[in-house]
């Protein structure tokens, strides 16, 4: 029984290292964090970015493995959700800008001069999809 547990632990650790390395490679190669700092003009908080990424991955992975949850009062959840949404939105914007997706899309579709329409469609689609998910799947 001890060998099986060690083997499963070794395979799980190896899989975690593989996935973690892929995530770090994606963030590093695409330059998402430096671009995010450039967009938000927060170069002086580089250590905070590094620490939040590392702690977020480690704590999130640990909580996922333990299948635990944190019971915060409702008034704490509003700013946590707000900051999480802002971070994910800025991360997606930085990734989109790094990959130059929007200019290529606008050129292919023929909306080069009306890129604001594409941006608003993306924003409104994300908002409505998130609200639908929250109201339908979370509250029922």
Strand % is: under 5%
Structural class determined from secondary elements? mainly alpha
Helix content: over 70%
Radius of gyration (Å): 19 Å
Order of helical and strand elements: HHHHHH
For the terminal residues, how far apart are their CA atoms? 42 Å
Low-confidence segments, given as residue ranges, are none
Profile the largest sheet: none
* DSSP E strands, number: 0
3D shape? extended
Mean pLDDT: 78
Q: Helical element count?
A: 6
Q: Key features?
A:
140 residues; extended; mainly alpha
Question: Which secondary structure elements does this structure contain, and how are they paired or packed?
Answer:
Elements: H1 2-30, H2 32-40, H3 46-66, H4 74-99, H5 101-109, H6 115-138
Helix pairs in contact: 2-4
Structural account:
- The chain is mainly alpha-helical and 140 residues long.
- Helices cover 84% and strands 0% of the residues.
- It has 6 helices and no strands.
- It has helices at residues 2-30, 32-40, 46-66, 74-99, 101-109, 115-138.
- α2 (32-40) packs across α4.
- The radius of gyration is 19 Å and the shape is extended.
- It starts with a helix and ends with a helix.
- The mean pLDDT is 78.
Care to give the gist of this entry?
The protein has 140 residues and is mainly α.
């Amino acid at each position: 029984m001890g060998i099986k547990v060690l083997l499963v632990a070794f395979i799980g650790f190896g899989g975690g290292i593989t996935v973690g390395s892929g995530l770090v490679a994606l963030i590093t190669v695409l330059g998402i964090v430096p671009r995010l700092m450039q967009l938000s003009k927060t170069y002086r908080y580089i250590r905070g970015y590094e620490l939040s990424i590392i702690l977020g991955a480690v704590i999130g992975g640990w909580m996922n493995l333990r299948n635990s949850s944190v019971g915060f009062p409702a008034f704490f959840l509003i700013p946590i959700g707000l900051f999480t949404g802002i971070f994910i939105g800025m991360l997606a914007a930085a990734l989109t800008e790094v990959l130059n997706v929007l200019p290529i899309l606008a050129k292919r579709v023929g909306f080069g001069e009306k890129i604001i329409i594409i941006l608003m469609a993306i924003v409104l689609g994300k908002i409505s999809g998130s609200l639908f998910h929250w109201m339908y799947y979370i509250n029922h």
